[in-house]
Amino acid sequence: MEEPVARYDQIDPTVEARVDDLLGRMTLAEKVGQLVQITPFAPFDVAKMEEQARLAEAEGRPFVFEPEVRADLEELIRAGRAGSIFGTADVALINRCRRAAVEGSRLGIPLVVGNDVIHGLRTVFPIPLAEASTWDPPLLEQAARVAAEEASATGTDWIFAPMVDVARDPRWGRIAEGAGEDSYLGGVMAQARVRGFQAAGLASGQRVAACPKHYVAYGGAEAGRDYNTVDISERTLRDVYLPPFKAAFDAGAGTVMSSFNEIGGVPATCNAFILTTVLRDEWQWAGMVVSDYEAVRELLAHGVAADLADAARRSILAGLDMDMVSNAYADHLAALVDAGQVPIAAVDEAVRRVLRLKIRLGLFEHPYTDEEIAGKVILRDDFREVALRVAQESMVLLKNEGGLLPLAADAGRVAVIGALADNRRELLGCWAFHGQPEDVETVLEGLGAYLEGDRAPVFVPGYTLPTKPAGFPVPGEADGADGKATLDIPAAVAAAREADVVVLVAGESADMSGEAHSRAHLGLPWRQQELLDALAATGKPLVVVLMSGRPLVIPRVAEQATALLAAWHGGIRAGRAIADILFGAVNPSGKLTASWPRTEGQIPVYYAHKNTGRPVSGSGTTQFEEAFKSTYLDVPNAPLFPFGYGLSYTTFAYRDLAVAQRRLGLDGTLEVSVVVKNSGKHAGDEVVQLYVRDLVGSVSRPVKELKAFQRVSLQPGEEQTVRFAVPVRDLGFHGLDMRYTVEPGAFKVWAGPNAVEGLEGDFEVQGD
Ligand code: NOJ
Predict the structure, then answer these.
(1) pLDDT tens across 314-355, in order?
(2) 292: Cβ below 6 Å to ligand 1?
(3) C-alpha distances in Å from residue 572, one per residue of 64, 251, 329, 379
(4) Which stretches of 46-115 are assigned E, i.e. beta strand?
(5) pLDDT tens digits, residue range 531-558?
(6) CA torsion, points 751, 755, 757, 759, in degrees to nearest 10?
(7) I want to staple 248 with a disulfide (CB 3.0 to 4.6 A). Which of 44, 190, 243, 594 is the partner?
(8) Which among 159, 213, 322 is the best mutation to test ligand 1's pocket, defined by most ligand atoms within 8 Å of the CB?
């Protein structure tokens, strides 16, 4: 195997001296131990868990799953057979493990403790897809910093986030965890999150290392089914899926998690092209790669390894440094080295990367977590404030017919319908293991701040939330599972009839998105549509607040609702944020970062698509209007709501797009300005977006690509000249020879409020 080279500026010579010294003292078994990551818990016993759940239900108390600590935990660590643990925020347990490593093992090498902190630890923020909908990187940086402070205080050194997978298929439940469909936006958000996580500095007491994941193309899963096959071209890999990772590394991320999926037949876990050619040879990245959960063992199921030893061999030779829980390295790596099947240099290189991380995290100097701190850091008021701001900025107003919103203080009687309005748990969203329902403000509580006393809203649940994820019904499902959902339409309709305005809180539960939670039908679950039909028939003004972990397919809802707000799973302050928006204390400013399809049949539908040889003239056309073009017979190509879309209570007028220099050299900068005016009656924020199109390339180019954006705040009547500067070197792509190049030629540029509207200009890039 070729010796990987690390760029000099990534390597601190004092760190290297310590790494060399330590490595020289380690036995092969100790080296292997550093590459092994375990959880402190015994294997998950589903039957036992179900029994505990039944008992809790019978006793009428909430069920909290408490995994059993493995019996050999400390012994294993003392023997130097585990270099990292993950999956707990129990500080006492973490310190027990840390002590076993530092005081009990021969060389006293500290553990690095990982954890999934995906959108906050105890201060749960909106799901990452919602966070991205703020288009506010500085705010995301603050949110990530809050998450890091809480995580660090509870014993985490290393956060398995940000999830930077580009996701163009909303069936995929993990679309909730990332920044959406766009590579550029994904990179900007990844950088904000990495900076936020690592803000305190790696070697401070409050240190946390980021771990962008899942490397790479995990979001390209066929049919939106989690863990499924990915088969994309090298060009798409390089132009779309790799850039957010590169951006995260450029912002200082020193670790990465490889993905479960294969790419063109080679699982990422043992894929030398992505783990060595791209990471080490091309990017000269010196960081550490951890596998995903049991992914080394999964090479057997993929059918690319005959046994676990073979899986270990393939993975280490490809460039995978740490094995998360599959025990392949623990059980086989030393023997593989002894048998000459794996060169010791490959093991040494992986160990170096782990030691470097531990040294840079300051773990040798501060190996323990202060058990007094945790309680003081968690859920601080200033953290809750950041969570509120993120929730407010993340929500996207999709429709507001006749300016129904914001509701006036004297809007009359308000009926609130929908079990989700009185729920805490679901607002936490997926991946909120450490979130507590009691920390969450419900929508009803939020509304209470505006509708007090005799103006308090009438509340009718209308539908029931399923208690078990496995039982959740899916619209259109033939077996009638949806029929298990119970509705109380008469009570809801009666309340609506008595009211002046109806607010229906509808959507998905938290467990309908996230890992292994893909859906094939993306409409409203639990017969909510029947309830909505009945409410719409009352003719009352109808506000639909939609909670979800993904873009939903809701053309009928969008027609029936007078006003429609995408509220996602908005975290602990979601209830308050929704109320602030409905009553106008906050003017919505979120914009979609993933297109909302009209029907599942359009998927994947994304703005940066190719033109094809037979493009339609307008994106709304069907085959009947333009024959033999790339269209459908039954729906237009355009999504229901495009990327970048989101309304405000005010309006923004765009004028005077100006391109400073219409002819640019390869080392030039594209400077574009546009005047944006608040032409309505409310103060508001607009996210001004800049897109380009490279008209002719050696390979085909997307019809539009986001290159920059700015959030501006404008008072009514106020206008601002928004200026963008994009280096010409950022207008490139991987050309015919698969090298990144900016090809001279004509470009179009747009500045506008979303991916389909905006003012157009043009410019030309000239060669040397
Ligand atoms: C599997 C998930 O894919 C990954 O995102 C997560 O970090 C690991 N499990 C650890 O929980």
Answers:
(1) 999 999 999 999 999 999 999 999 999 999 999 999 999 999
(2) yes
(3) 19, 28, 40, 10
(4) 84-86, 112-115
(5) 999 999 999 999 999 999 999 999 999 9
(6) 20
(7) 190
(8) 213
